[in-house]
């Protein structure tokens, strides 16, 4: 029951965050959205991901947003032109179309929590057994992240490096060092 | 019917959230608002992945003597990677917005496009 | 062996900002060294693949589908050759061009991002794991956003931002598709997914996954209705970045699309289970015509080339969509040829901007007298783009036509002819202005510096060389398609 309410919260927060014209409150609500998401993920037993989301999604990204806001503007301005309606309608059409294709895909999806689902029966058993037997690591997520799919993690680190270099390259001042 | 709804509830909510985020990304005029939409869009895709990793009566994917069934650890791993990608994109996008604001004194897309269109006409004629 | 193809650019990208702190010239030399070593490794891999047929590497020694696998077969071998070659040329070219267009302080970071971009696309090409593909797509995208934003004009910022938004939507669509595929099959290795998908083709999950991955890649590929990010991104990026994006960026997405359509899904799925290919043929034809028509309307040379790219991307997807061996061969040949031609043309556009500071075609009156060699190369590369016999452009168009005939898609033939005519018109417009209109200034020769004209010369000569001596590209592509469709 609590999960259903948490998910409802997520919907409300996301709509508010998109809708409000004050960018500051929008960012704060986005941060709350991330925190609720953290709780949802903890409820789904994804503890490692929840940790990361709490630190990165709710923490770091809010800080980045706030620092960006402090260097730009706080308010959002309404579009003055009359085109607005057509444009939003077009966006809504795209979104409804994409959403309905996605929902169409869920029709013959395995039910939530189904133990027979292929996602749980192809790769996962080897990882769950192998983590202790092959590698001796108690946390399966760690063993996959660092060992079985360690190369993805190298890619992930490269992405952060790219982002770091990009931000420095973009924001480096002309006169400074 | 209730069973069907309960068995797909998580997926449907994550799809709904994705669509809210995507709408924000496409329809909003404010550059920062688009990035907020992007964040919501990506995080809800992550919710979709994490929901798929849940197994009924499963415990967290950490070795435990009394555990009977573990949850699926693979989606968790994929999402750990994807979260980092998402925050990196956000950081680059915001750095870009700061540069745009410095150059155009505005973070509204239509205003900036108007300025650019005017400039282009000037160079052409 | 194939591991080093990706690791060396990554390693170089770590070294460039470090050494760039002492002297920005080091950043260039290290990148050049890295590009040469990568190219040598690709040549080694080429020799190995030609003798053994396939080359693979398992990360950490875990066998697929449990670990991540790198595979090089015929198809990605071609991509590897062209990318590593253009990597080398772009680094050489960017020495002079970037020194002028990019501030000194940012130069070592620029080289760093250039190397990261190549890490990303080389990773996309060699990986056999579908989630790994997503990670490398993001590395390539993130670095390209910033590379575009470093362009000399302030338009580059908005171009980069638009690309960022659409690129992220594309990448996230791919991620959603991967999620659906993982849910349906439980696997992430491409070869493994292929065998697991066959019995569940009727599943709605699989169809949705297919739709989203294809849509996402088409956004990255800039297929016609989804092309809006491309012209500004190519035109306002630094010259060397425009060339590398046109020559490799979209080509890699096209490669990824071929991989997904034929190595993850099968022809049977693409044509029989869902009517994807028939729809895709029409979209491609529209893209070919629209790209060529829009190119006609452009005043800015780089933008004209960018719109022409959109048309040429239509050719590539047309070959993919007709899905017989000949048309696919034509498509892969066109990836190869178009990389060479567009690389040359963007290099030349960048060279004219470097020397003269002009971008609009109307300002280029009589420029052939001042830059005779450059414009001669432009003529050759331009004719190749049109598809004149004895140039590479002819070869791929010929195979696409043959493919259309063997599929009995006769309506494709007039479209290809019309589009060739249109491309002749827009190339001729530049040639006419450059050769037959009098210039206002009567300056004598002012060619590009050697470091910039040498890469142009090499690519243009290759355009002719592979147009006359066609054995090598034909053999490679034929083998590649045989492996791709065969199993």
Distance between the termini of chain B: 66 Å
Helix share of residues of chain C? over 70%
Which structural class is indicated by helix and strand composition of chain B?
mainly alpha
Helix-strand string of chain B: HHHH
Number of strands of chain C: 2
Mean pLDDT of chain B, to the nearest integer, reads 88
**Order of strands in the sheet with most strands of chain C:** 1-2
Q: Uncertain segments of chain B of ≥5 residues (pLDDT<50)?
A: none
Q: Element order, helices and strands of chain C? A: HHEEHHHHHHHHHHHHHHHHHH
Largest interface (CB < 8 Å): A-B, 88 and 81 residues
Radius of gyration of chain B over all CA atoms, rounded: 21 Å
Feature tags:
heterotrimer; A: about 180 residues; mainly alpha; 3 domains; about 0% strand; C: about 475 residues; two-stranded antiparallel sheet; 20 helices; 2 strands
Describe the overall structure:
The complex is a heterotrimer of chains A (177), B (125) and C (487). Chain A is mainly α and 177 residues long. Chain A folds into three domains: 1-77; 79-109; 115-177, no CATH class. Chain A has helices at 2-19, 23-43, 47-71, 84-106, 118-121, 124-135, 140-148, 150-171. Chain B contains four helices and no strands. Chain B has helices at 2-27, 31-53, 73-104, 109-124. In chain B, helix 1 (2-27) packs antiparallel against helix 2 and helix 2 (31-53) runs antiparallel to helix 3 (73-104). Chain B is elongated, with a radius of gyration of 21 Å. The N and C termini of chain B lie far apart (66 Å). The mean pLDDT of chain B is 88. Chain C has helices at residues 2-20, 24-52, 74-101, 104-126, 130-149, 155-185, 190-197, 204-221, 230-236, 239-264, 267-273, 276-296, 301-322, 325-356, 367-370, 372-386, 392-407, 412-436, 450-468, 471-486; strands at residues 55-58, 69-72. The longest helix of chain C has 32 residues, at 325-356. The model of chain C has no long low-confidence stretch (mean pLDDT 89). Chain C is globular and about 70 Å long. Chain C is mainly α. Chain C has a domain at 275-487. Chains A and B meet through helix 1, helix 2, helix 3, helix 4 and helix 6 of A and helix 1, helix 2 and helix 3 of B.
């Amino acid at each position: 029951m609590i999960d259903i309410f948490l998910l409802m919260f997520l919907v409300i927060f996301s709509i508010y965050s998109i809708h409000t014209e004050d960018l500051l409150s929008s960012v704060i609500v986005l941060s709350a959205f991330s925190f609720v998401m953290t709780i949802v993920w903890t409820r789904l037993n994804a503890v490692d991901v929840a940790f990361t989301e709490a630190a990165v999604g709710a923490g770091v990204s809010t800080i980045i947003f706030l620092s960006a806001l402090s260097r730009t503007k706080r308010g959002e301005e309404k579009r003055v032109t009359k085109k607005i309606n057509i444009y939003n309608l077009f966006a809504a059409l795209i979104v409804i179309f994409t959403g309905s294709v996605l929902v169409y895909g869920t029709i013959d999806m395995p039910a939530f929590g189904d133990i027979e689902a292929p996602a749980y029966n192809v790769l996962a058993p080897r990882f769950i057994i192998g983590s202790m037997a092959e590698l001796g690591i108690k946390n399966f997520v760690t063993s996959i992240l660092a060992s079985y799919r360690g190369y993805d993690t190298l890619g992930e680190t490269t992405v952060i490096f790219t982002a770091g270099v990009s931000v420095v390259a973009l924001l480096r001042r002309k006169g400074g060092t | 019917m209730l069973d069907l709804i309960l068995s797909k509830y998580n997926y449907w909510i994550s799809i709904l959230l994705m669509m809210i985020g995507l709408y924000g990304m496409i329809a909003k005029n404010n550059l920062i608002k688009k990035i907020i939409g992007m964040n919501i869009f990506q995080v809800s895709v992550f919710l979709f992945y994490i929901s798929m990793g849940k197994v009924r009566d499963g415990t967290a994917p950490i070795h435990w003597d009394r555990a009977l069934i573990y949850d699926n650890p693979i989606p968790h791993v994929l999402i750990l990677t994807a979260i980092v990608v998402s925050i990196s994109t956000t950081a680059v996008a915001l750095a870009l917005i700061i540069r745009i604001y410095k150059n155009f004194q505005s973070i509204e897309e239509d205003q900036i496009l108007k300025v650019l269109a005017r400039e282009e006409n000037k160079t052409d004629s | 062996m194939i591991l080093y193809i990706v690791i060396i650019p990554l390693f170089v990208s770590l070294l460039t900002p470090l050494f760039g702190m002492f002297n920005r010239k080091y950043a260039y030399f290290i990148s050049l060294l890295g590009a040469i070593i990568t190219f040598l490794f690709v040549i080694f891999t080429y020799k190995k693949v030609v003798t053994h047929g396939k080359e693979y590497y398992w990360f950490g020694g875990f066998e697929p589908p449990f670990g991540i696998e790198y595979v090089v077969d015929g198809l990605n071998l071609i991509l590897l050759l062209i990318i590593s070659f253009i990597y080398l040329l772009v680094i050489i070219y960017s020495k002079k061009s970037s020194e002028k267009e990019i501030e000194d302080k940012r130069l070592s970071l620029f080289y760093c991002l250039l190397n990261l971009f190549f890490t990303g696309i080389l990773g996309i090409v060699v990986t056999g794991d579908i989630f790994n593909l997503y990670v490398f797509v993001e590395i390539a995208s993130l670095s390209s956003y910033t590379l575009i934003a470093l362009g000399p004009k302030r338009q580059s910022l908005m171009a980069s931002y638009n690309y960022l938004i659409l690129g992220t939507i594309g990448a996230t669509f791919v991620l959603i598709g991967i999620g659906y595929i993982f849910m349906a099959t439980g696997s992430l290795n491409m070869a493994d997914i292929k065998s697991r998908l066959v019995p569940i083709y009727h599943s709605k999950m699989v169809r949705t996954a297919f739709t989203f991955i294809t849509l996402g890649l088409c956004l990255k590929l800039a297929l016609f209705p989804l092309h809006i990010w491309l012209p500004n991104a190519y035109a306002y990026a630094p010259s060397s970045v425009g060339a590398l994006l046109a020559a490799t960026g979209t080509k890699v997405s096209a490669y990824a699309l071929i991989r997904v359509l034929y190595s993850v899904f099968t022809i049977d799925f693409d044509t029989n289970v869902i009517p994807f290919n028939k729809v895709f043929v029409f979209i491609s034809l529209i893209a070919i015509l629209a790209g060529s028509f829009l190119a006609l309307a452009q005043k800015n040379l780089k933008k004209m080339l960018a719109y022409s790219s959109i048309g040429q991307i239509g050719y590539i997807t047309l070959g993919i969509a007709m899905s017989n061996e000949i048309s696919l061969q034509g498509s892969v040949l066109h990836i190869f040829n178009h990389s060479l031609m567009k690389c040359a043309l963007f290099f030349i556009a960048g060279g004219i901007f470097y020397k003269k500071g002009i971008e609009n075609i109307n300002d280029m009156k009589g420029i052939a007298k001042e830059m005779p060699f450059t414009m001669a190369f432009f003529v050759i590369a331009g004719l190749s783009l049109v598809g004149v016999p004895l140039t590479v452009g002819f070869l791929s168009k010929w195979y696409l036509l043959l493919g259309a005939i063997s599929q009995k898609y006769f309506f494709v033939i007039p479209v290809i002819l019309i589009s060739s005519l249109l491309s002749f018109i827009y190339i001729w417009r530049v040639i006419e202005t450059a050769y037959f209109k009098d210039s206002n200034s009567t300056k004598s020769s002012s060619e590009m510096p050697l470091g910039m004209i040498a890469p142009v010369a090499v690519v243009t000569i290759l355009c002719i060389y592979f147009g006359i001596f066609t054995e090598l590209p034909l053999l490679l592509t034929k083998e590649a398609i045989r492996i791709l469709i065969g199993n």
